[in-house]
Design goal:
The protein has 128 residues and is mainly β. Helix content is 0%, strand content 64%. It has a 7-stranded antiparallel beta sheet with strand order 1-2-3-4-5-6-7, with no helix packed on it. It starts with a strand and ends with a strand.
Length: 128
C-alpha cells in the first residue's frame, strides 16, 4: 500500500480552512487499486462559546464507478475551558458498489451498495 498525502490550512480572520488529498495505490486490490480522497473543511467561531464546523470529503476509485461523497456539519458549545457539548449531522452518498456508512460502519449500520445514508450524533467532550 503506497500513499501520497498533501494537506494544509490557512486562517481568514477567525475562520480556519483546511484541505487535503490522499492518493493511494493499494497493490492488494486488483479491481480498484488506485484511489484519491479529497477533503476541504472550515471552522468558524460564531460566538466566544459556539463554533460551527463543516467538511466535505470525496473518495474516488480510479477507473471505476465506485465513488462516495460525505458532507458533515458540527456545532460545538463550550460549557467550560475543558468541557463542551456537540452535535454532528452527516450525509454520505455512495456510487457503484460502495456501501460506506456515515458513521464509520458499525456492524449492520452500512447502507446498501450505491445508496445514501444520513447520521446524527450528539455528545459531550471533556479534556482531562
Amino acid at each position: 500500500d503506497k500513499r501520497s498525502v498533501v494537506n494544509g490550512y490557512f486562517k481568514a480572520g477567525a475562520t480556519k480552512v483546511a484541505a487535503g488529498l490522499i492518493r493511494r495505490n493499494n497493490e492488494g486490490s486488483a479491481a480498484t487499486p488506485k484511489s484519491d480522497l479529497y477533503w476541504v473543511g472550515a471552522s468558524h467561531p460564531v460566538t466566544s462559546l459556539f463554533t460551527l464546523d463543516g467538511q466535505i470529503f470525496r473518495l474516488d476509485f480510479k477507473n471505476s464507478a465506485n465513488e462516495a461523497t460525505l458532507f458533515a456539519l458540527r456545532g460545538t458549545y463550550a460549557l467550560s475551558k475543558r468541557t463542551a457539548v456537540y452535535g454532528t449531522l452527516g450525509r454520505i452518498g455512495n456510487d457503484g458498489t460502495l456501501a460506506i456508512s456515515a458513521s464509520g460502519g458499525a456492524g449492520g449500520g452500512a447502507p446498501a451498495a450505491g445508496k445514501s445514508q444520513t447520521g446524527v450524533m450528539f455528545g459531550v467532550r471533556h479534556a482531562f
